């Protein structure tokens, strides 16, 4: 039987019942999970803790997807109007639901693979910080906002040799796409940056050596492997490793 992979949705006024609000999950996530041997399922936007706990209990893994910006007050006490104006925020229930999904998945030791916004949200859930507007708060030498080239590797990341990510990728460098406005600043306690861009920006995280002993499988990435998996085998292997972890009893 295929492991059931819970895929976090967004909400958009689109689809056959346009303009009614509908849950929205890009097909590339679902196809990447299917090709890796998993059965992807999603759920409505809800921050009901009982519904979230039930959904996690009936799933074998959690995939957190990309999306718009995260509400800044979730990780920073004071945010200027100018900084807030740079944000294009996602639905507030999505923020609340993902925080609940992450906490419950970690509590139940479910394997978690977190992509882009998901990578940032895990850091927020565990008490880490984000750059709210990357171009002004961390103007490095790398262009991280390359939406037209989202199906191509546009910048390299450098991978820590003793990491799970290095084992999956089979090397210490990986070309990635880059379509993000925000980014991880300080990784939360328990997390370790295992991939960085040339400008030092955190592009991948895992549990640190101590947290790994008591927690389930976890990997987060700032890039979008679901868009690269059909053409670049190392990105497909990220989904394969995740789905394989979801086959084990928690
Ligand atoms: Mn990037």
Strand tally, please?
A: 13
Unreliable stretches, pLDDT < 50, 5 or more residues? Answer: none
For the termini, the CA-CA separation is 16 Å
| Cα shape | globular
Provide mean pLDDT, rounded: 95
Text of the CATH class: Alpha Beta
User: How are the strands ordered across the major sheet?
Assistant: 4-1-5-6-13-12-11-8-9
Q: How many discrete domains? A: 1
Number of helices: 10
From N to C, what is the helix and strand string?
A: EEEHEHEHHEHEHEHEEEEHEHH
Explain what the structure shows.
The chain has about 250 residues and is an alpha/beta fold. The protein is about 35% helix and about 20% strand. It contains ten helices and 13 strands. A nine-stranded mixed sheet has the order 4-1-5-6-13-12-11-8-9, sandwiched between helices. The radius of gyration is 17 Å and the shape is globular. The structure holds manganese (II) ion (MN). Manganese (II) ion binds near residues 144, 178, 180, 197 and 222.
């Amino acid at each position: 039987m295929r492991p059931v992979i819970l895929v976090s949705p967004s909400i958009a006024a689109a689809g056959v019942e346009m303009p009614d609000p509908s849950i929205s999950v890009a097909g590339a996530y679902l196809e990447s999970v299917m090709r890796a041997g998993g059965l992807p399922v999603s759920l409505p936007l809800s921050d009901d803790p009982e519904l979230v706990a039930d959904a996690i209990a009936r799933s074998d893994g959690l995939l957190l997807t990309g999306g718009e910006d995260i509400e800044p007050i979730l990780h920073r006490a004071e945010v200027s109007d100018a900084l807030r104006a740079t944000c294009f925020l996602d639905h507030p229930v999505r923020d609340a639901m993902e925080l609940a999904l992450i906490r419950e998945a970690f509590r139940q030791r479910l394997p978690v693979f977190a992509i882009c916004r998901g990578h940032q949200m895990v850091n927020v859930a565990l008490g880490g910080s984000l750059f709210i507007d990357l171009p002004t708060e961390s103007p490095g030498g790398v262009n991280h906002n390359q939406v037209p080239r989202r199906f191509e590797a546009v910048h390299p990341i450098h991978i820590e040799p003793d990491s799970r990510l290095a084992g999956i990728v089979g090397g210490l460098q990986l070309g990635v796409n880059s379509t993000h406005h925000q980014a991880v600043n300080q990784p939360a306690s328990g997390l370790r940056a295992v991939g960085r861009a040339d400008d030092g920006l955190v592009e991948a995280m895992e549990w640190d050596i101590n947290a790994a002993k008591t927690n389930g499988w976890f990997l987060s990435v700032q890039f979008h492997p679901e868009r690269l998996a059909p053409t670049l085998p190392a990105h497909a292997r990220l989904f394969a490793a995740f789905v394989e972890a979801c086959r084990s009893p928690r």
